[in-house]
Amino acid sequence: MSTDNINTSSWERIQKGFQETERLLGQKRYNECMIRARQTLEFMVKCLCERFDIMEASLVDMIDALYEHEIINKTTCEHYHKIRMIGNKAVHEEDNLAYNAGQAYHLLSQEIYTFANDFTGKKKRPVPRSQERDRTEASSESRPHSSRQGAARTPSRSSSRAGSTARRRRPRSSGPSIDPGSLLKILVPVAVIIILIFIIRMVHPGKENGAETTAPIEVETISSTIEEPSTAEETESAAPEKRYKTSDTLNVRSEPSTNASKLGQLAPGSEVKYIEDYDDTWAKISFEDQEGYVSKEYLELIAD
């Protein structure tokens, strides 16, 4: 788009999509609610891509490109992908859970507010109709008390000024001041250590007895550390090899980061040559005779 902000017709269409999502959620048509949330998100993402001259085919690539160009932040990128995945699950798996529908609605509400602030110049969050009625009733009830509260605040200003003047006139004490709380924090651990030393000396008065009791403990500790790896190795050898497939179009990165370069893409339903988990977010795989990294969020375990 050539203008600085998203045009009025596009913004009205986004608001209409959000209102339709809210209506479907209120009618407990959860599957349609999730699908409508994804459609509204897709139109919103396309508006941003057109404005910033981003040419990508799929919704996944458009969202990643907006994040890579620093048009949206990491939180917004994660919310976009979450709404997209909930919508895909509703379309392909006919998901009809109320929790997923509510999550898609609330995430969409947050991101439309961010979208309005950053790209349309409109600072107003789309407020559900039920909340608008509650705010109207609350404001009508609080009006009679506003004059009383204003009258009560008037004398408090003079008292606060007098108090601030008195505080300014208070002379500073010379020398360092010791906070009793800080002193207790220091003394309590010292006292505990002294009591522990005293108890240990009472239980083990002689050095020889202490040497005799510590020796078996060291042997048991060493033996336990030796036995643990063998148990872990037996568990690993007994566990079946995990097999994964992609749940959507998945980018393969050279490093465990969305900013890293792409090694290629895996189509939906492709089996992945899984190596190991890198962390809670990324997994290491073998891709075209080299190691790559993919997001674990888009991997599904293949049942034997």
Describe the model.
- The chain has 304 residues and is an alpha+beta fold.
- Helices cover 62% and strands 11% of the residues.
- The chain contains eight helices and seven strands.
- The strands form two sheets. Strands 6-5-4-1-7 form a five-stranded antiparallel beta sheet, with no helix packed on it. A two-stranded antiparallel sheet has the order 2-3.
- Helix 4 packs across helix 5.
- The longest helix has 41 residues.
- It is extended, with a radius of gyration of 31 Å.
Describe this protein with a few key phrases.
7 strands; 304 residues; 11% strand; 5-stranded antiparallel β-sheet; two-stranded antiparallel sheet; alpha+beta
Mean pLDDT across residues: 76
Largest sheet: 5 strands, antiparallel
DSSP helical segment count: 8
Following the backbone from N to C, one meets helices and strands in this order, namely HHHHHHHHEEEEEEE
How much of the sequence lies in strands comes to 5-15%
Q: Classify the secondary structure makeup into a structural class.
A: alpha+beta
Q: Give the strand tally.
A: 7
| Rg on CA atoms, Å | 31 Å
Low-pLDDT stretches: 122-127, 142-160, 162-166, 208-217, 219-227
Side-by-side strand order of the widest sheet? 6-5-4-1-7
Portion of residues within helices: 55-70%
